[in-house]
Amino acid sequence: MSAAHAMQSELPLLEVRDLTMRFGGLTAVDRLTFAAHSGAITALIGPNGAGKTTVFNCITGFYRPTSGAIVIERGDETYRLDRLAGHRIARDAGVARTFQNIRLFPNMTVLENLLVAQHARLMRASAFSLAGLLGLRRYRDAEEAGIALARSWLERLDLVQYADRDCGTLAYGLQRKIEIARAMCTQPALLCLDEPAAGLNPRETTELSRLIISIRDEFGIGILLIEHDMSLVMGISDRIVVLDHGARISEGTPAEVRSDPAVIRAYLGEDDTANGEGGR
Amino acid sequence: MAPQASSISAALREASLAAAVALVLALPLAGVRLPSGAAEPLAFRPWWVVAAVLAVFVGRFLIALHISTRRPRAFAAPPLFDRALGAMTPWRRWIFAGFIVAVALLPLMPFADRRMIDLGSLVLIYVMLGWGLNIVVGLAGLLDLGYVAFYAVGAYSYTLLAIHFDLNFWESLPLAGAFAALFGVLLGFPVLRLRGDYLAIVTLGFGEMIRIVLINWSDLTGGSEGISSIPAPTLFGLSFTANPAAGETAFHQFFGIPFAGVHKLIFLYYLILALALLTHVFSMRIRRLPVGRAWEALREDEIASRALGLNPVMVKLSAFGIGAMFAGFAGAFFATRQGFINPSSFTFIESAIILAIVVLGGMGSQMGVVCAALVLVLLPELARDLAGFRMLLFGAAMVAIMVWRPRGLLSHREPSVRLGDRAGGAP
Amino acid sequence: MAYFLQQLINGLTLGAVYGLIAIGYTMVYGIIGMINFAHGEIYMIGAFICMIAFAVLGFMGIASVPMALLVVLLLAIILTAAYGWTVERIAYRPLRGSFRLAPLISAIGMSIFLQNYVQLLQGARVKAMEPVISGGFVLMRDGSFQVTLSYLQLMIMSVTVVLMAGFTTVIHRTPLGRAQRACEQDQKMAALSGIDVDRTISLTFVLGAGLAAVAGVMNTLYYGVIDFFIGFLVGLKAFTAAVLGGIGSLPGAMLGGLMIGLIEAFWAAYFDAAYKDVAAFSVLVLVLIFRPSGLLGRPKVEKV
Predict the structure, then answer these.
(1) Helices H / strands E in chain C, number of each
(2) Which of A251, B81, B115, B248 is deepest in the core (most CB within 10 A)?
(3) How many whole angstroms separate alpha carbon C216 and alpha carbon C226?
(4) CB within 8 A of C287, min separation 6: which ones?
(5) Domain C2-290: assigned CATH number
(6) How far apart are CA B132 and CA B349, in angstroms?
(7) Band (A56; pLDDT cuts 50, 70, 90)
(8) What are the tens digits of pLDDT across the range C95-148?
(9) pLDDT of C13 higher than 70
């Protein structure tokens, strides 16, 4: 884990400041502040209903926060995610996400799913379809590059034999992996994983934690993670933010969070697997 | 398998129930006929009711018997229709190519008379409209119930450009398409942000609005009379009239053959065939491009598409506009083929027929559109004797096909790209 | 002022009828999420049954107007409801759980079928009947112009108000209403908690058809002429009303109906009658742009 710390840059990639989200009278997120860095895995944990998914939805543009700021620094550009149109958060600010209940395009093949993720780049290369319709070289090259990128992800995840199968026909565990590959094909600066281990068996979970770590180390991007599987969270996270009733009750390294009395009271006290299986 | 006594009595029960409902339904509408004028008496028709009840009883009995004697689903072989389709799948490309060749040769066949060629071009108009709407409904999953509005825009644009600005067919064809696309974009921009069903109702309303405007804006559109004497298209400046105007050359003069009215029909046939094939080739190519995949992705899951950086409004707008453009082309051809247009050619029923062609054929299937267009356009034309019944049967067929095969007759999706086809691809 | 008042009365009458039909659309949409395209035709059938019932009663020599009205209304409701039930049973129930567009296409087919069915049985020409109720109150005089509220208009409005009140009670207070609301939220859960989903949906169609029948009776009395094609435009406008008010909401359907009626009446009175439908649709588009969930609809929160 120390290698990851070395890669962590000083300036945060994502900054969430005083984020508040109300639905009618219910305050789902209450003045939440935290940061996530490039080259680091930041986990967002908390009991059910703590507001984790709401935070995700605010970051990825599905909800408009009631107040507060969400800022991404990407290259020289600064993006205010709380004001950006939903699709630009992915396209320009470089935030990719997966969903709690997988959202692949079920009637399209795995390869097609991975190509849709590269839409913005391929669209530019096809000159808004003109070059593509005429079959110009410049588009053909871009398409080859897109397929090569997709293939590299399929090879890494050992999915090449499923490339031409419809996603909807594949097993659940495979779909989870494909969704991560699809998110990575957008070449993001921040990858948001919403309960990636839900529904996976122990072997698949181990494989998943290896995958997440390899993404962090190889691409140096920031990873934001919501997860209930404490052994996974404690094993791979660089920093953990603990939420309860929409507010932050603790933040720190896995070791710090684990020994924080507030956390134990709110959450870990009821769940001793986290204490038992810390580390890898 | 012989029907069992229990299944017969169950079928009888079902049939009696259906007959009772039929009695209630038929009693007022079939049993009594309202007079249409003061001179006509009120007529009672008990025998019609009896006939209706008997027909429903027998029909329901046979259906119930058929269902109860069919082997359980899990063990049954796929129905004959699916097996036949499955056997044809590897040859799909060749069947399609053979079909195109047959269609291209049709006007040259000795048995092809004027009526057949004319009917052929009518079917091809619907094939083209079906392929155009397929981009909107089949690929992008947008329910457009007012497609005929863009067809009307194309037809009227061509007509007005030809009459007022003296543009010939080839000059105004692209403009007609562009106008229709413009209308599509203008209409689509505000409503494409809405949920799918709202789009359906707004497009339906738009279709009616266009028709109302066409009827009432008499100065421009000629009102419900419409516009006649629309110029016919020319082939590289060669007209298809018997006695061309001074300075013009007619087709038969140029080639030194005797004049025949059928030349024009054959020319129109090839013209619409070319336009339809253009639509087909365009759809096939654009499906494999990023924008085509984006359409399908949006149809599959809008939320996931947005999370991948697709701009839903722009993606939908492009599908809507391109679909409208092809309707505009088809409209221009329609106007030039008829020689006259009026608003009664652009009613909701036309939109419903085009949509039915797309959905019955199997959404997204190019060949399905051809089959459905053949059935839906040819059957009513051939069954002119059954004039009163044809729309009744048309409606009933739409319901029946949906109940029987909700995904359409030929529903098969070919991936837009395959890794397996490439060097070093998947096994 | 007097002219305005008269148009207000005409618009409200028209709107009350649209509202009754709109409820059928909104309930069906609420419960199974489909546009029941054939609902306009159900209204048309209601109008035909009304006229046929009057003709038959007249043939039998029943002269008492209140008596005849009551019998006609009941007959129209029952027989039209039977049509509503049958349409659902044949064209929609087999398609439940099928893909999104299938029921809609089936509904369009059903609409075409019903139109031609009535045309075949009753002929294509317009049917007319003598006015049954005439006369009214003169509310105001302005020179030669009289503002009248006819007995018929009064009856249409009061029947609508009574039905709306009764209907709201049904939805909020009875087991049927509860079952309906449960199915609206989650059909699977409703089925698991012992609700007969098929029966609830059937009843929804029956109720919607019953209201459409009342609308058909009212409009037949009001205009005195019908033909097999009247369902299309009225249905379209009633659906517009349902969307305008916020689809899925009963008060919304009524409000939307009244608004469409008023827009139509005022546009026809002050501008160009030929474009009154264009005006109604334009308002719909504007509302959808600025308030996509309709006037009284609840905005739908996307579940991610």
Answers:
(1) 11, 4
(2) A251
(3) 10
(4) C244, C294, C295
(5) 1.10.3470
(6) 17
(7) confident
(8) 887 777 788 888 988 999 999 999 988 888 888 888 887 777 887 777 777 888
(9) yes
Nearest to B191 among C85, C288, C302 (CB): C288
Whether residues B26 and B158 fall in one domain: no
Residue C303 forms contact with A (CB below 8 Å):
no
CB crowding C49-87: b at 16 or more within 10 Å, else e? bbbbbbbbbeeeeeeeeeebbebbbebbbebbbbbbbbb
- The answer to whether position B420 is within a domain reads no
Residue B67 shares a structural domain with residue B108: no
What distance in Å separates residue A243's CA from the closest CA in chain C? 20
User: What b-and-e string marks burial along A145-156, b requiring 16 or more CB atoms within 10 Å of the CB?
Assistant: ebbebbbebbeb
**Does the distance separating the beta carbons of A119 and B308 come in below 8 Å?**
yes
Q: Does C302 touch chain A (CB under 8 A)?
A: yes
Q: Report the amino acid identity of residue A88.
A: R
Question: Are A16 and A55 a contacting pair, CB within 8 Å?
Answer: yes
**Residue-by-residue DSSP string for B139-159:** IT----S-HHHHHHHHHHHHH
Which of B75, B103, B125 terminates a domain? The answer is B75
Range of the domain at B142: 89-404
Whether residue B388 sits in one domain with residue B284: yes
Tell me, yes or no, whether B411 lies in a domain: no
Cross-chain CB nearest to B200 (options C35, C75, C126): C35
Q: CB of B23 within 8 A of CB of B49?
A: yes
Residues in A closer than 8 angstroms to B286, CB to CB, are 129, 132-133
The mean per-residue pLDDT over the stretch A36-62 comes to: 87
User: Does the A1-94+189-280 domain belong in CATH 3.40.50.300?
Assistant: yes
Residue of C nearest to B19 (CA): C86
**Do B153 and B234 share a domain, yes or no?**
yes
> Which residue is associated with the tokens 């109150």?
C137
Please state, in angstroms and rounded to a whole number, the distance separating the CA atoms of residues A225 and A41. 7
Query: Rounded to the nearest 5°, which phi and psi values hold at C131?
Result: -60, 135
Q: CB contact, 8 Å: A172 with chain C?
A: no
CA distance A264 to chain B (A): 35
A53·C301 Cβ contact <8 A: no
Q: Which of B27, B43, B75 is the last residue of a domain?
A: B75
Total structural domains within chain B: 2
- Please name the helix (run of DSSP H) or strand (run of DSSP E) that holds residue C74, with its range, or none: helix C65-87
* Residues B63, B94 within the same domain: no
**What ipTM is given for this predicted complex?**
0.86
User: B309 and A120 in contact by Cβ < 8 A?
Assistant: yes
Q: Would you mind telling me the total number of residues written for chain C in this entry?
A: 304
B-chain residue closest to A183, CA distance:
B308
Chain C neighbors of B195, CB-CB under 8 A:
292, 300
C197 touches chain B (CB under 8 A): no
Are residues B31 and B98 both part of a single domain?
no
Residue labelled with tokens 């609308």: C215
Q: Does A53 touch chain C (CB under 8 A)?
A: yes
